[in-house]
Amino acid sequence: MKLIVLVLDGVFDTGLATVLDALTTANELADLVGSPGPRFHVSLVGVRSEVRSAQGLSVPVTAVAHCPTADCVIVPAIGCKMPGPLQQALARDDVTDAASVLRDWAAAGTRIAAACVGTFVLAQAGLLDQHEATTSWWLTPLFRERYPAVRLDSRRMIVSSGQFVTAGAALGHIDMTLWLIRQTNPELAGLVASYLIVDSRPSQSAYAISDHLAHSDALVERFDRWARERIGTAFKLDEAARDLATSKRTLARRIRDVLGKTPISHVQDIRIERAVHLLKTSDTSVDSIAHTVGYADGVTLRTLLRRRLGKGIREIKRV
């Protein structure tokens, strides 16, 4: 399988290294699953002749004009983690040129995968319009604002839609690369994951800090604070809208735009977050914690914890 890694100036060092190390490991382990010889041929390609990583390391790249054809193009993140610097980076000439090249590859039917902030580069090129996608959880509000035509679900770690594959935050690069390996050889992907000690992480929800996202919008921040102050009582959207001096429709729309969820779903996330904290830091019974966070009994809380946290529930011994 021929792969191109499109490396932009200021590339996130860990993201690039993770992609390359996972693919190299797959090649090294191929014999163990009865698939001799290198499986992945990787070319580092740039839209500029000189590329440096976010940490200032020189990255040897082949010019786009001289790059080989490929089965898949991978776009690692740019090393800008906050909205301000990221928007400045997206306005750079080399990113504009990269978007043009990506559109050409897409038109030729090439699969394109991007992780973390790399998903912004794909969206900037217009390639994700009307497609499902994910991105770094904390950049969800910015992504929704810039690319409203993308069907974003930032709760998921990996989203495959048509010829495009997007992955979540930072170390989502490894999830994306394992997904690509799995399309060729599931057994090999499992072996690479075992060697690199990578657990399956289908969701970013367990890592997302809802309070961080809520602070990006004044009304959503007020709703978040209102819900936390009433965590042990039944949630009523009418009451929330009245207390916050807004309409139910406006409140629901703003929460959806910022957090990508319904008001009741956010309230449930707050309750789960508080319950997990209490389970980890106190000896209080599950039933008592359930009442504290607004659920009728421990059975309901246990069910929600298992559904929301998946394998991560093993860290909580009492559930």
From TrEMBL:
Domain of life of the native organism: Bacteria
InterPro entries: Class_I_gatase-like (IPR029062), DJ-1/PfpI (IPR002818), HTH_AraC (IPR018060), INH-QAR (IPR052158)
PROSITE patterns linked to this entry: HTH_ARAC_FAMILY_2
Keywords for the protein's UniProt record, in alphabetical order: DNA-binding
Gene3D superfamilies: 3.40.50.880, Homeodomain-like
Keyword Cell wall biogenesis/degradation on entry: no
SMART domains per the UniProt record, alphabetical: HTH_ARAC (SM00342)
GO molecular function, one term: DNA-binding transcription factor activity
TM ranges: none
SUPFAM superfamilies for this protein: Class I glutamine amidotransferase-like (SSF52317)
Residue stretches making up the HTH araC/xylS-type domain: 221-319
Protein name: Transcriptional regulator GlxA family, contains an amidase domain and an AraC-type DNA-binding HTH domain
